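Protocol step 4 of 5: obtain the predicted structure for the target chain.
Materials: sequence only (see below). No template structures provided, no constraints applied. The aim of this step is simply to have a reference model before the mutagenesis design in step 5. Sequence pasted as it appears in the construct record:
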Amino acid sequence: MKRILIVEDNLLIAEDIKLIIEDLNYKVVDTVIKAEQAIEVLKKETIDLVLIDIVLKGEMSGIELAHIINTNFKVPFIYLTSHSDPKTVEKAIKTQPNGYIVKPFNQSDLFTSISLAFNASKENTETLSFSNKLKEYCFFKVDGIHKKIIFSDIKYIRSTGNYIEVYTLSSQYLIRATFKEIAVSLPDSVFLQIHRSYIINIHNITGYTSNFVEFNDTTINVGKKFLESFSKVKESL
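Step 4 output (structure tokens):
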């Protein structure tokens, strides 16, 4: 299990981040409010990723901490900050972070950034290999192993550039593949594109209106160009 250190001086935000990370099946080794405390943790513990707020309590900023991490620990890190002004971003980029998330953020933002950070640091990135439409499953490669996923377990798929996020009934996966590769491989009787970035499994919808669908606590808007096709499908739900 990947081990993450949170460096965040707002205790309420830190607790929210911790809950999200644990829900994503990562281990939070510690939560600290100062850069100095983070350095001590890094000296004693094995850390796979550090989440850093730029403005911290104490004498050091998150950017100063990042410089020390690069020099002494060689651990990937992601900035979590409310600062997105050009001057701050320019300073942050010079430290070569593995991600930069502007508050407020959601679980999906955090999941994507963490997954990309881990993928960037390993040789075997996840690649997708779908079966043909006559079958009821697909395979994707994780750490050199082709894993099987049943189509009926998929809730929805989200495109994030050269990667896709696959959300199933029990797990989440970040996979290196294009949206086009997936769209032409999934069975049309089960999956429907409702947005330029989303394909859904219509059988796993838990609620809907004329312009959005729900999967438990997740709401996805239906794009304007997909309203007509979604309207036809609603009649069979």
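Step 4 remarks: Helices lie at 11-23, 35-44, 62-73, 86-93, 107-120, 179-183, 227-234. Confidence is low (pLDDT under 50) at residues 123-128, 130-134.
Proceed to step 5.
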